[in-house]
Amino acid sequence: MLAYILRRIAMTIPTLLLVAVAVFTLMRLIPGDPVQLMLGEGADPAQLELMRRQMGLDQPLPAQFLVWLRHALAGDLGVSTTNGLPVLPLILERFQVSAVIVLAAMAIATLIAVPAGLIAAWRKDRATDLAIVGASTLMLSVPSFWLGLLLLMFFGQYLGWLPVVGYVPMAENFTQGLLYVILPVVTLALVETGVLTRMSRASTIEILRLEYVTHARAKGVPESQVLRRHVLPNAFNPTLTMIGLILGHLLSGIAVLETVFTLPGLGRLMIDSIFARDYPVLQGCLLFTACIYVVINLIVDMCYPLFDPRVSVQ
Amino acid sequence: MMKFKTHTLIGGALVAGLLVMALVAAAWTPYNPLGIDLRSKLQPPSASHWLGTDEFGRDVASRAMRAASTSCLVALLTVVLATSIGLLVGVVAGFVRGWTDRVLMALNDALLAFPGLLLALGVMVNVGANQWGIVLALSLAYAPSVVRVVRGTVLSLREREYVEASRMIGNSEAYTMWRHVLPNCIAPVAVLATSMFGWVLLSESALSFLGLGVPPPAPTWGNMLSSARPYMASAIWLCVVPGLCIALTLLGINLLGETLRDRLDPRTEKSS
Amino acid sequence: MNFESTGAAPVLSVEQLTIELHGGAQTLVHDLSFDVHPGEFLAVVGESGSGKTMAARAILQLLPPGIAQIGGRIVFEGEDLGTRDVKAMRPIRGPGIGMVFQEPMVSLNPVHRIGEQMAEGLRMHTALSTPEIRARCLDMLRRVQIADPERCMDAYPHEFSGGMRQRIMLASVMLLAPRLLIADEPTTALDTLSQREVLDLMVGLAKDHGTAVLLITHNLGLVGRYAQRAIVLEKGRLVETGSVPGILIAPQQPYTRRLVDALPRRQASKPPADAAAQPLLQVRGLCVSYPGARAGLFKRHPPQHVIESLDLDIHAGEMVALVGGSGSGKTTLGRAILRLAASQGGQILFRGEDVRKADRAALRRFRLACQLVFQDPFSSLDPRMRVQDIVAEPLRHVPELDAPARARRVRETLDEVGLEQLGARYPHELSGGQRQRVAIARALVRRPAFVVADEPVSALDMTIQAQVLRLFQSLQAHHGFACLFISHDLAAVEQIADRVIVMERGRIVEQGTRDALFDAPRHGYTRALLEATPRPLASLASAEVEPLDERAFA
C-alpha cells in the first residue's frame, strides 16, 4: 500500500514541474516591464537598472526560473507589489475562506445528490425520476452568480435577514461568521447538486443493469438492502471522480461568487491582482491553485482502492 | 417515450429561439444597443421598451439580443477550435501511444491543472481583453477535456476487431486512423461539444461579470449583470433579464444534449 | 424415468404464461405451459428470441423494467405465485427457487468479499449463527472443488476465473437448498473443460438436495448429456416437449428437426495433402511471451511465456483445426502467425520466405495472400461502412484490378456468400449470421491462399452456426485455400477439419488426421477435451456420414 502511495506521488512530480514552468512562462509573457510598472513612468533609468538587478531580472530566463523555483519550494513566493505583504501567508489566509465555502457546499451537494441520483435511477422514467431530473437540470442551468445575486437581493436586502456585504471569519465569531457564509454555501451547493445528481443517476442506471443486482434480488434480499449494499458502493466511483474534478475547479471558479458576496477569498485575490498588475501575487495564486488541484486528484486516486477492490494496490 | 418528446421539444425551442435571436440581432435590433439616452434612463418595462432601460437609457431588450449574438459567436468559435485541437491531439495520442502519448498527456494534464477560468485570465492578460483573446483562452481551457474524451474513445476503439481487420487488409496505420477510428469518435465528441457550448457560454459570462471579458460598452449578458449590481433594489429588471437569458440558454442546451446522448447511446446498436 | 406416472405433484407448473413488452409492442412469450417435477432435470431449448430467458425471469418476478407478464399463472408447490407481491416473494427467492445466471464476470458484486456474499442468503433466510454460517459456506466451497476455501471466503470476485466464479455462484445458491434451481445458460461463457465441471457439479448438488433443475440452454449437446426431459421454444411458443434422448433421435416438429440437423456431424474425409510438396506455411520454433506485470516501483515479474518453441505445417488447400481450452494459446498463435501479435523468436515461412522479421515489401506480399475471419460479428465490421464498401476495401491493394473489375469481384463474392441483395446495407441492419458472412466475404475477396478463422461461429445461434459452417466448408472446397480453423468447439471441428492440432498451455500436445484424433486420441488432454464435449450424435445410431452440400442455407 505504501509503495502505491509513493508511486502515485512520484508520478505527480513531473506534472507539478510542468505546471511551474507553465506559470512562470505565462507570467514572463506578459507585455510590459514589471519594474517600470512598479516604479512608475518617470523613473530614473539608473534606478530601474538597480531594481532589475535586485529582483534578478537581468539573469537569463532559465536561471530566473530556477531561482524562483528554489524560493517557491522554500515557501517564499515573494511579496505583493500592492501592499508589500509576503505572498504565501496572504494566499493561505484567503484560501481558508474559499476552502470553507467550497468544502461545505460540496459536502452538502454530495449528501443530497448521491441518494437523489440513486432514487431517480431506481424509479427510472416514473414520476419521481422525472421530478428529480427536471429539478437537477434546472439547478445546473442557472448561473451561480445570478442565483447568488437573486438570493442576496431577497434574503439580504428585501428580508434583511442576512448581511449583504462584509465578512467575519468563523474562527473569530462563529455565529456571526456563519451568517456571512450561509448564502454563498447554499448558492454553490444548489448548482453542484444539480451536476452531481445527474452523474449519480447515470452511473446508478449502469449498475442496475448488471447481473449481480438481479442475483441479489433473486436471493430474496430486500430492495433497500440491494440499493444500499450492492448498488451504492459500485455506483459511487464515477461520482467520486467527478467530485475530485469539480473541487479542483471550484477553488478558482468561486471567484465569481466571492465577487457577488464580497468575500475575501482566493478567487477575489486573483482577480484583484490582475487588475492591480500585482504579478508576484498572481503568480503565487496560479501556482498554489494548480498544486492544490493536483493534490486533490491524488487524494481521489488514492480513495479508489477503498471503494473498488479491483483497483490494484500493487 | 413521452419524456423524450417533452425535453427535446423544450430544448429545441429554446435553442432555436436563441439562434434566431442571435442571427437577427447581428444585423438588427429594435433600438441601438449602444445608444445612450439619458432622459429615459432606468425605466421599468413598458410598451416602448419591453424590457426596460438601463442606467444609460439604453434599451435592455436590444442589448440582450446583441449580447446573444456576441456570446453565441464566441461560444461557437471556441467549441470549434477546442474540438479540432482536441480531436487531433486525442487521436494521435490514443493511436500512436508510446512516448508521444505520454508526453502529450503530461502536457494535457498540466493544462487541465489550470482551472479554466485561471487559464483564461492568464492568457488574456497576455493577449488582451477582446473577443479573440477570449476565444483563444477558452479554447485552451477546454481543449484538454476533449483530448481526454477522444483519447479514451480511441483507446477502446483500437481494441475493436474492425481496426485489426483494417491492418489485416494491409492498410497503413495512418489510413486506419483516418478511415476507421476518426469517424467513430464523432459521436462522443458531438455530445461533448454540445455540453461544452453551454459551459463556454457560462465561462464567458462569468469572465464578463468579473470585468475580464468583452469590454463595455459592447453588451454581454455577463457585463450587463455586473453593471446591474448597484441597481439591485431599484431596477430589478436589470438583474433579472440577463441572468434569465443565460439560464434559459443553458437549459435549452442541456436538454438538447440529453437528446443527443440518448440517440447516440451505443447500447441501442447491439441486439442480444 | 416417467414422472407423470409416479403421481408426484409438479414442483413448478407454468400455465399459459404470456409476457409482453409494455404497450403491447411485442409479445415475447405466448401461452407457454409446462411442468417441472420434483428432482427432475428439465431443459428449455431455444435460440435467441425464443423467450426462454424471460419465461425463467417471470417465475421469480424478476422481469426487467418495460416487460410484464400479462397472462397465465405460475404455480410453485401448489401455490399461485401471482398472489404474492414483491415482499412476499422474498421467502420464495432463495430457499424456494434459486437462480444461476450466465455471465460469471458480472454475477458477483465486485466490491464485497465472497464470504459476505455467500453468507447474505443464509443470514436472511435462516436463523443460523455466524460461525455456523461460515462453516456451511466453507463446506459448500469444498463441495464445488474450490481449493483453499478459507482464502476464498476472504477474497474478492475479480481474483477468480470465470469457471471458478460460476462454481462459487452455484455454491452460494445451493446453500439455501432450494427445491427448484433455474440455470440460465450458466456455462455459455466458459470453455469446454470448465463447462463440464460446472454442469457435473450442478447435477451432483441437485441430486444431494433433491432439487429439480430447469436448465435454459441453446446447446443441444448439453441437453443430450444431462437432461431427462426437454421443451423446445421458438419465438415465444412451445414447439415440442419430450424425453431425452427421444426428442433428439426422432424429433416430431420441423423446428426441432432443424435444430437437431444443425448439430455438426462428420463428413467424408478428403484425401490427405501431398506430404512431399513444400507446405504453404511452416512455423519453426515460434515463441510468444508477454512482459511480466509490475512488481514494485521499478522491477517487473519475469515475462509470461504464452507459446514456447512451436512447430507447425500447413499445406495448400488443407483445413487444419486448432483446438484447446482457454489459456492454451491458440488465439495468440493464430494472431502471431499473421503478425498481428508480436512474437519473440522462431521463423514463420510462407511459401519459403520468412515473414516473421520481414521488411515491408515481404509483409505486404504476405498480407495480400492471407486473411483473418474474426470471432465477433458485432465488432469486426466498421459500423459506419456499407457492406459493399467493407468487402471492397481489401481490393485497394490490388492495383491490377480496375474499378469495374473490382465492382464485379465484390458482386461475385457477395453472391457466393448469399448476400447479393444486401450490399447497400449497414452492419447494424444485418443479423449475426449475415454479418459473419460479410466478414467471410471480406476475407475471400482477394482470393487468399491462406485464411485463419478465429472461432468464426462461436457467437452465433445453433441453426445459423450450421449454415455458416457449411458455407465456409463449401467455399474452402471451391476456392482451395488453406485454412487454420481455431475453435474450442470440438463438435464443429469434427465436421469441418481435415487435420486437428491440440494445444495445451502453449504447446502442441497432439496432432493428426480428424478421424485418427477423434476415434483414437492418445494424449490425456485430448481425451479430456473429447469427453467434455457433448456430442449426442456420436452416441446415437444416426452417426452416418453426410455428403457435403453447396449453399445449404435458407
Structure, described:
The complex is a heterotrimer of chains A (314), B (272) and C (554). With 314 residues, chain A is an all-alpha fold. Chain A contains 13 helices and no strands. In chain A, helix 5 runs antiparallel to helix 6 (127-141). Chain B is an all-alpha fold and 272 residues long. Chain B has helices at 2-27, 60-96, 98-113, 116-127, 131-158, 161-169, 173-181, 186-209, 221-228, 236-263. Residues 267-272 of chain B have low confidence and may be disordered. Chain C is an alpha/beta fold. Helices cover 35% and strands 24% of the residues of chain C. In chain C, the strands form 5 sheets. Chain C has a 6-stranded mixed β-sheet with strand order 6-7-8-3-9-10, with helices on both faces. In chain C, strands 18-19-20-15-21-22 form a 6-stranded mixed β-sheet, sandwiched between helices. In chain C, strands 2-1-4-5 form a 4-stranded antiparallel β-sheet, with helices on one face. Chain C starts with a helix and ends in a 15-residue tail after the last helix.
Beta-strand share of residues of chain C = 15-25%
* Structural class category of chain A: mainly alpha
Shape field of chain C: globular
Helical stretch count of chain A?
13
Strand content of chain A: under 5%
- The SSE string of chain A, one letter per element, is HHHHHHHHHHHHH
Number of domains of chain C: 2
| Total number of helices of chain C | 21
Sheet bearing the most strands of chain A, described?
none
Shape of chain A: globular
Instruction: Report, as a whole number of angstroms, the end-to-end distance of chain A.
Output: 7 Å
Separation, N- and C-terminal Cα atoms of chain C:
38 Å
Regarding quaternary structure, what we see is: heterotrimer
Query: Structural class of chain C, please?
Result: alpha/beta
Helix content of chain A: over 70%
Q: Which architecture of the largest domain in chain C does the CATH hierarchy give at level 2?
A: 3-Layer(aba) Sandwich
CATH class of the largest domain in chain C: Alpha Beta
Q: Give the rounded overall mean pLDDT of chain A.
A: 80
- What's the CATH topology name of the largest domain in chain C? Rossmann fold
